[in-house]
């Protein structure tokens, strides 16, 4: 094995050790799930940024930009960063005041047990693609830096197991502390490697001019109805579909106060948007530095363009900085997305079946669910052929059509009812799945139809006579 892999192993051991050290702050289930609602502004901002700056930001967005330009990355970073801004402006403060453990608790309190179960299951399912993308990226990194010595599947298992160790023990405390340190590594590493690569091509201006001439900065779709509909659907998939997610809620709920919850989300979103362009710049620089390599990988596996450039064309220090930043990005995202669905599944699905369990027993339950969920997503990652970018983008379609409308209308429409919430979910999922099966590439994007029907279901279900326990009632 080469020298780089030993630097990676050293970094990996240190970061896992820090995560395990943070576990000393976990004394109860609230510490495990939301870090005791005690995190300061700089830590919450770091964990918002680091959670979102994952494998798709470094490998997925950059490879998609090289192939399709800006119009291909409308969902992420444009939609995803706007999601965090919208959370900070409209959702963070009202949710923080409710003093909830999970986002599923909101749906139970507002719409009842049935809606709580349905939304929680949708949220958990949506994480399969997102977490699997991080596990898949870990396998890719270990394979690349070891020169093929570590197989992709072996790398996935090693990566998943090591992230599991500190997430299992320290929960949100470990995620928050490691995210803070990893944000520093991401920022420093990305800025340094950007400076290094720009020097190889004669400055950033050369790369920008070349990309502009190649049409990579064309953002808006063709002025046809179908193109505009699909463009809008891609934008809102992550912009709105990411809002009712447990990892977003955990950062809100972990804050020391509601002001921090809102401001940290906005700042984290802005930082994410700005830094997401560095991997795009790096990957496109490869078309100038080594066009032959890019042409050979562009259709075969474009996700390898950036790591191959770094491995073959930059000095060892730059390699260490890049892969340190990349591993930090993936680890922070993976730990957060392992924890989030596990906590909400434990709280909103399993806990009601064990009403007499102690808090210590509930904490054990959450840890067992983290372990089981990690095993499931690792198997899923090892058996999927989807790209990292598509896995992440597709993950949010289910929460867009099932969870966003009940959350937004429940907070801001006084006439929203439990019946409206249930009809909204049924309409949204049914119409989305029906179109995905019958016309996935048709005139109307399935997820756009799904969210529109979800809105219709909320309005109609809330305004019609209400059925409670078999008795019809009327809204006043």
Task: Please outline the major beta sheet.
Answer: 2 strands, antiparallel
- Give the class from helix and strand content and strand pairing: mainly alpha
Based on DSSP secondary structure assignment, what is the total number of beta strands?
2
Which CATH-level-2 architecture of the largest domain?
Up-down Bundle
Q: Count of helical segments?
A: 22
Roughly what percent helix? over 70%
Number of domains: 2
Q: Largest beta sheet: what is the strand line-up?
A: 1-2
Mean pLDDT: 89
Uncertain stretches of 5 or more adjacent residues: none
- Can you identify the CATH class of the largest domain? Mainly Alpha
Question: What can you tell me about this protein's structure?
Answer:
- The protein is mainly alpha-helical.
- It contains 22 helices and two strands.
- A two-stranded antiparallel ribbon has the order 1-2.
- A hairpin with a 2-residue loop joins strand 1 and strand 2.
- The relative contact order is 0.18.
């Amino acid at each position: 094995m080469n020298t780089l892999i030993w630097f990676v192993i050293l970094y990996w051991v240190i970061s896992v050790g820090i995560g395990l050290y943070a576990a000393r702050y976990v004394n109860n289930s609230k510490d495990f799930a939301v870090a005791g609602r005690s995190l300061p502004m700089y830590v919450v901002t770091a964990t918002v940024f680091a959670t979102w700056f994952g494998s798709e930001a470094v490998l997925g967005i950059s490879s998609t930009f090289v192939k399709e330009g800006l119009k291909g990355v409308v969902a992420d970073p444009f939609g995803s960063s706007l999601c965090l801004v919208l959370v900070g402006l409209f959702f963070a403060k009202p949710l923080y005041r409710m003093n909830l453990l999970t986002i599923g608790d909101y749906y139970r309190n507002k719409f009842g047990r049935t809606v709580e179960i349905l939304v929680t299951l949708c949220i958990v399912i949506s994480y399969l693609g997102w977490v699997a993308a991080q596990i898949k990226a870990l396998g890719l990194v270990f394979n690349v830096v070891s020169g093929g010595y570590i197989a992709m599947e072996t790398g996935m298992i090693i990566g998943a197991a090591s992230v599991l160790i500190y997430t299992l023990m320290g929960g949100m405390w470990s995620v928050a502390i490691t995210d803070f340190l990893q944000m520093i590594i991401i920022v420093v590493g990305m800025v340094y490697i950007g400076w290094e690569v720009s020097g190889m091509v004669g400055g950033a201006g050369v790369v920008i001019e070349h990309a502009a001439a190649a049409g990579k900065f064309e953002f808006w779709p063709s002025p046809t109805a179908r193109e505009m509909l699909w463009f809008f659907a891609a934008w809102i998939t992550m912009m709105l579909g990411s809002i009712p997610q447990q990892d977003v809620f955990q950062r809100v709920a972990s804050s020391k106060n509601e002001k921090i919850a809102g401001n940290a989300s906005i700042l984290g979103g802005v930082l994410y948007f700005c830094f997401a362009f560095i991997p795009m710049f790096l990957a496109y620089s490869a078309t100038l530095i080594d066009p032959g390599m890019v042409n050979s990988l562009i259709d075969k596996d474009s996700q390898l363009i950036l790591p191959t450039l770094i491995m073959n064309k930059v000095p060892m220090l730059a390699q260490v900085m890049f892969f340190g930043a990349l591993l930090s990005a993936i680890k922070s995202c993976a730990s957060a997305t392992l924890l989030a669905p596990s906590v909400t599944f434990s709280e909103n699905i399993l806990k009601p079946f064990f009403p007499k369990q102690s808090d210590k027993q509930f904490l054990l339950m959450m840890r067992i669910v983290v372990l089981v969920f990690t095993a499931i997503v690792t198997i899923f990652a090892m058996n999927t052929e989807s790209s990292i970018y598509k896995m992440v983008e597709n993950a949010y379609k289910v929460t867009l059509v099932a969870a966003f409308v009940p959350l937004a209308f429940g907070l801001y429409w006084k006439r929203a009812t439990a019946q409206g919430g249930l009809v909204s979910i049924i309409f949204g999922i049914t119409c989305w799945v029906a179109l995905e099966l019958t016309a996935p590439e048709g005139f109307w994007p399935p997820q756009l139809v799904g969210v529109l029907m979800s809105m219709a279901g909320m309005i109609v279900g809330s305004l019609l006579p209400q059925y409670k326990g078999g008795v019809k009632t009327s809204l006043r």
